[in-house]
Amino acid sequence: MKYEALAKSIIENVGGTENINSLTHCVTRLRFKLKDESKANTDVLKKMDGIVTVIKSGGQYQVVIGNHVPDVYQEVVTVGNLNSNDSSEQESDEKVGLFNKFVDMISGIFAPTLGTLAATGMIKGFNALFVALGWLTVESGTYQILNAIGDSLFYFFPIFLAFTASKKFKVNQFTAMAIGASLVYPTLAGIRAGDPLYTLFSGSIIESPVHTTFLGLPLILMDYSSTVIPIIVAIFLASKVERGLKKIIPDVVKTFLIPFFTLLIIVPVTFMIVGPIATWAGSLVGAGTLAVYNLSPILAGAIVGGFWQIFVMFGLHWGLVPLALNNLAVYGYDPILAMSFAASFAQTGAIIAIMVKTKEKKVKSLGIPSVISGMFGVTEPAIYGISLPLKKPFIMSCIAAGVGGATLGLVGANGYVVGGLGVFGITNFLNPAESGLGNVPIVIAIIIGAMILGFVLTYIAGFGKMYEDDAVVAETTNDGIIDSGNEVYIGKDTIESPLKGSIIPLSDIRDEAFSSGAMGKGLAIEPTEGKLVSPVNGVVTMLFPTFHAVGITSDEGTEILIHIGMDTVQMNAEGFVPHIKQGDKVTKGQLLIEFDIAKIQAAGYSVVTPVVITNSQNYLDVITTEKSTVSSNEQLMTVVI
């Protein structure tokens, strides 16, 4: 609703929804393909608050918004009732390893559910706590309603995962949900409770009773409530079937015949083949993880706890989340996520030590919100903002988390729900099948111990300074970076060149969004080598899916946008090879993206690359080099703080 008025004005002044063929967006602008550009009120749009400028290029009518363009785009799509064709959803041709593909698939399927999964888990955890404290009885209506809320998502998990998997595998969402609903159909549970007709694989590890048949073929009815593997495999197969049917079924009857045949094929195949095999595989995986845990719970806890923050940073924890969910579905408990529970508290203890010991006021002020969020299990502000840049505190927090994880393994701590994080996650350890608090008091003692250990180790190990001295005198230099004189600045952030090439003033490039300075102060480089390196130590805060633009926030807080070429978003990642991903920590000189200059130019696009400070309004000045050519890692700009 924040940009509703702006969205309505944009739609009206591009000629209305009837004049819009398509709409996408890139890093800074809305990209319309209009039926008739003469119907657009370009002068009105240029003068409108919230719009930087309007550019007509490459057959597109480009309304330049700024860094918040995704929010405006969503509002325009909603207000105009347009079909979303967001360029950020385009798939790239980047060749990635199988493990990276697996992690990407798992995160895409599970991530949308985690907020609600945590919420329902917290409700179930608190409900168990209320019973343990004698505030409720399991027979009371209050308990039953709260339990229904708590069980709602996890019990019917196949339906929810069918929805998210359908987006990942590009299947009709309602067809996918119908497949998931079939797996948890209540009547089938009643059939499974009766006496079996006969038993298959009798005496083996996969011995399976057969309670009914389908077209005379034996049907092995598993309990699919709360399961994760069968539905993911089923939706993957459904994507192949649906894609094949689209090629052979006439358009006039596709609407109902594609889901008709998809359901008739996939649901029986899932019940007869996919479901049993996937369930057996899930049981074996669960048994395997627990076997490793039982072999040495202390070692397992030390590894999971000690490396958990690193797993999260690189997205590797997504490889463990489905194992944990599988354990909950198969066994009713899970030790994997339980062993990671001390990590956020260890990190918080390290930040408290930094706040106590540091003399830097800015670090102290950053520490307060980091501690608060860390107590609630959100450690990204602490990691990326403080401990990782200082290095030693991050290492100390990992050691403390490893000790905490090993101790949790030693006492046999298990999670019984996927609930809240941080202090809200304490109820995850309440066993609903037992009365009393169980080992929750021990868990509380362990996380407090991890926090204290993180504090002590960090305080003893020490750490350097994050920022320069509060008063830095700018000295006269000969490279044109800092003007002569004896002005006193609060501080500075040095930006090195990300490219090798010729310097071009921003005012001389043909893209008005950059040449006007609306996107921020900076300069442009015409590269002679197709390698883009990091100009600062910092974090990749934005990497566009077409890899033509990257945003980096330096450790000093400077926000840098590097846009390789003009209108190169239309190359759809062709000729671009990324070596980083969004959220990565990068260092000066680290290779970020390789790009094919010849291919870009052959496609008719300029390779002139703007390098701008998008938050330059927050600083006293941005002083650029006076050199005509520059090499990678040479000093390019100085941001005066």
Overview of this protein structure:
The protein has 641 residues and is an alpha+beta fold. It is 46% helix and 16% strand. The protein is built from 20 helices and 24 strands. The strands form 7 sheets. The chain has an 8-stranded antiparallel sheet, with no helix packed on it. A 4-stranded antiparallel sheet has the order 1-2-4-3. Helix 6 (157-169) runs antiparallel to helix 7 (173-183), helix 7 (173-183) crosses helix 9 and helix 15 packs across helix 16 (380-390). The longest helix is centred in the middle third of the chain and has 42 residues, at 254-295. It is globular. Mean pLDDT is 83; it is low at 85-96 and 468-490.
Notable traits:
641 residues, single chain, alpha+beta, 24 strands
Give a brief rundown of this model:
The chain has 641 residues and is of the alpha+beta class.
Write the layout of secondary structure elements.
Blueprint: H1 4-13, E1 20-25, E2 29-34, H2 42-47, E3 53-57, E4 60-64, H3 69-80, H4 98-132, H5 141-155, H6 157-169, H7 173-183, H8 186-192, E5 198-200, E6 208-210, E7 212-214, E8 217-219, H9 229-248, H10 254-295, H11 297-314, H12 321-331, H13 336-339, H14 343-357, H15 361-375, H16 380-390, H17 392-410, H18 440-461, E9 472-473, E10 488-489, E11 492-496, E12 501-504, H19 512-515, E13 521-527, E14 531-533, E15 538-543, E16 549-554, E17 559-563, E18 576-578, E19 585-586, E20 591-595, H20 597-602, E21 609-613, E22 621-624, E23 629-630, E24 635-640
Antiparallel strand pairs: 1-2, 2-4, 3-4, 5-6, 7-8, 9-10, 11-24, 12-13, 12-23, 13-21, 14-20, 15-16, 15-19, 16-17, 17-21, 18-20, 22-24
Helix pairs in contact: 1-3, 4-5, 4-6, 6-7, 6-9, 7-9, 7-10, 9-10, 10-11, 10-12, 11-17, 14-15, 14-16, 14-17, 14-18, 15-16, 16-17, 17-18
